[in-house]
Amino acid sequence: MSQHYYSNQPEASHDRRQLEEHLRDQTLKFMSDAGVFSKKGVDYGSKVLIEVMDIPENAEVLDVGCGYGPIGFTAARLAGNGHVTMLDVNSRAVELAKENAKLNGIQNVTILESDLLAAVQGKSFDIILTNPPIRAGKETVHAIFEQAHAHLRDGGVLWIVIQKKQGAPSAKAKLESLFGQVEEVTKDKGYRIFKATKIS
Known about the structure:
- 28% of the residues lie in helices and 32% in strands.
- The chain is globular and about 45 Å long.
- The strands form two sheets. A seven-stranded mixed sheet has the order 5-4-3-6-7-9-8, sandwiched between helices. Strands 1-2 form a two-stranded antiparallel ribbon.
- The protein is α/β, with parallel strands linked by helices.
- Helix 4 links the parallel strand 6 (125-130) and strand 7.
């Protein structure tokens, strides 16, 4: 079986490239490589999420499955007086994200290698963002939702992007079983953005 971007240690030969993306009225530069998600440019689903996510200035944010950093870095720019913790199981993606934080002069981030949310045990957040690894399977995606709920403060929000054809209806049902309030914020080219609010 070939490896996927959610493998811990990608074996794909390196193919480094620099990207420049305009996200949320800001230009960000990224080093990308083979063996990571969306290596040729920020994927459309992440862009849809980035454009609508609401990140307060002082928010404590968690980005689950950060890849080389587009969602987390945009959140860090929006939360100028807050902090963003970024997690990925893929060691190559984590190293790229650390490099890209320096490349863009972003300092209010902590980037960690983590299987799901294991690296943030005992911590809680105002906002959690994820473009979940659909190809890892429904069980993994739903585990992210469950762990996100446990790590959100009361009133905290989980923002998710997911394609309709890749399980958006079942994802929404799972979110509704966990969270007090689930809203479909927008849809664009088959992508759905869900905002799930933790109401105690």
